[in-house]
Amino acid sequence: MKQLTMKPSNPLRGTIKVPGDKSISHRSVMFGSIANGTTRVEGFLPGADCQATIACFKSMGVSIEQHSPTSLTIEGVGWEGLKEPEELLDVGNSGTTIRLMLGILAGRPFYSAVAGDESIARRPMDRVLDPLREMGAKVDGRQGGRFTPLGVRGGGLKGIHYQSPVASAQIKSCILLAGLQATGETIVEEPHLSRDHTERMLRAFGVEVNSFSGGVSLHGGQQLIGKDVRVPGDISSAAFPLVAALLVPGSHITIQDVGLNPARTGILDVLHAMGAMVEVKETGEWSGEPVGDITVSASDLQGTEISGELIPRLIDEIPIIAVAATQAKGKTIIRDAAELKVKETNRIAVTATELSKLGANIEETPDGLIIEGGTPLHSGICDSRGDHRIGMATAIAGMVAKGGATVENATAINVSFPGFAELMAELSEK
Ligand SMILES: O=C(O)C1=C[C@@H](OP(=O)(O)O)[C@@H](O)[C@H](O)C1
Ligand SMILES: C=C(OP(=O)(O)O)C(=O)O
Fold first, then answer.
1. 140 is known as an active-site residue
2. How far is the CA of 3 from the centre of ligand 2 (A)?
3. Starting at the edge strand that comes first in sequence, how are the strands of the sheet with 111-115 ordered?
4. What atom in ligand 2 is closest to the CA of residue 343?
5. What are the positions of the active site (predicted)?
6. Ranges of H-type helices in 20-88
């Protein structure tokens, strides 16, 4: 699917599920691999990013059997059982894979070489390598050891107290994984709470993790015990059909079994603030993560302001929130989101440029976006630039643009949402 064309849609109707949560799927493979014993995973996301994580751990000698695209059995080898990989560990397009895996590699007494695609080569690795070096890891890379390809010689770590300058679950998780292999205690503090899937899943795997206001700590030398994981639907993927249903008149849809971890539900808070008709019904807890159903009906939206602690709770949803904002009454202002510049693309610049091609009135600021709502969108050709979330956001914009939109380089969507186009088509045929 190199090109995806989306046309103005009939009302969206129906009850659907979205693919498994990407953050939880990555962690299930990593933690299952370093645990002692067997881990079975159901609801795994078979997207390109999580497949890259599987390939990396297989290269380190872990047996991972994929019974179906969404069901895995991992025979954990324990910390000591990971083997020096003979080939390059290729993380593809996945920031989560490289940054969390570096925390594991930093403590292993072997050499590993790590790289990914051209997007990964542009993304900063010093944010995890600086603390890892402080703990004693030896890592080198391009441009003074800051960019891939990286060479890691692990082992001999000592715990640290790290004050992270940004709220990032990738930084926090990397340091915690290294901390588990370090002497003494490791403490990570962050300016706002980032997603806490690592803390929750480590606890489920028998690790003692202490969360406190502003941070998290653990003691080194702990082993993980294999544990079955049931992965909820990814709220970051659900965001695309949710916004589509809000914008296409006459729509009414339900998305079942979506992860509702409060560190991820910022989009629901924002949509409520914009006046959206959104109902959330919590139905249970899967592997320590709250899960439920979300129902939305087409709504008249108002502009809003998004900043501060909300940002890490909806960081990956900003491109699709920007699409919703183009159709809202009044102005939407997004601040404190400079982190978007170091995602798969510079999502501040690319969201503004790509949505402008459809007539959106959207302005880039140093740390966010200003969107003047109530703009009728027109037809155009957008480019995902290899960024799955930009591909899907522009595709949804095409469903409300007069004449529709074509998205070039739409294959990128498979990174997090295989079956996206088919699912959207199914909703509009009902
Ligand atoms: O830990 C994770 O699974 C993720 C953390 C976030 O990145 P940062 O930690 O860089 O904010 C998010 O953008 C990414 O999609 C997944
Ligand atoms: C930023 C993302 O992922 P990663 O950092 O894992 O590449 C994302 O999925 O939007």
1. no
2. 22
3. 89-90, 111-115, 147-153, 138-141
4. 1
5. 316
6. 22-34, 48-59, 78-81
The predicted pLDDT at position 289 comes to 98
Give me the phi and psi of 81, to 5 degrees please. -85, -10
Instruction: Write out pLDDT tens, residues 104-139.
Output: 999 999 999 999 999 999 999 999 999 999 999 999
Q: Tell whether domain 3-20+233-429 is in CATH 3.65.10.10.
A: yes
Model's pTM, two decimal places? 0.98
- Whole-number pLDDT of residue 429: 85
Domains 3-20+233-429 and 22-230 fall in the same CATH topology = yes
Report pLDDT digits (tens) over 73-113: 999 999 999 999 999 999 999 999 999 999 999 999 999 99
Which protein residue has the closest C-alpha to ligand 2 atom 1?
343
> In this structure, which residue's CA is closest to atom 10 in ligand 2?
316
Look at ligand 2, atom 2, and give the residue with the nearest C-alpha.
343
- The ipTM value here is 0.99
How is residue 347 written in tokens? 């999502």
Q: Which residues are annotated as a binding site for phosphoenolpyruvate?
A: 22, 95, 123, 170, 347, 389
CA distances in angstroms from 400 to 68, 207, 310, listed in the order given: 35, 48, 27
Three-state SS across 128-140? HHHHHHHHCCEEE
**Which pLDDT belongs to residue 430?**
61
What pLDDT was estimated at residue 9?
87
Per-residue pLDDT tens digits for 362-410 = 999 999 999 999 999 999 999 999 999 999 999 999 999 999 999 999 9
How much distance in Å is there from the Cα of 388 to the middle of ligand 2?
9
Fold of 22-230: UDP-n-acetylglucosamine1-carboxyvinyl-transferase; Chain (3.65.10)
CA of 116 to the centre of ligand 2 (A): 13
Distance 250 CA to ligand 2 centre (A): 32
Euclidean distance between CA atoms 303 and 271, whole angstroms: 10
Give the pocket of ligand 2 (CB within 6 Å): 22, 49, 94-96, 316, 343-344, 389, 416
Structure tokens at 287: 């592997």
Catalytic choice (293, 316, 383, 387): 316
Residues in contact with ligand 1 (CB, 6 Å cut-off):
23, 96, 168-170, 173, 194-195, 315-316, 339
Residue ranges of domains in the chain: 3-20+233-429, 22-230
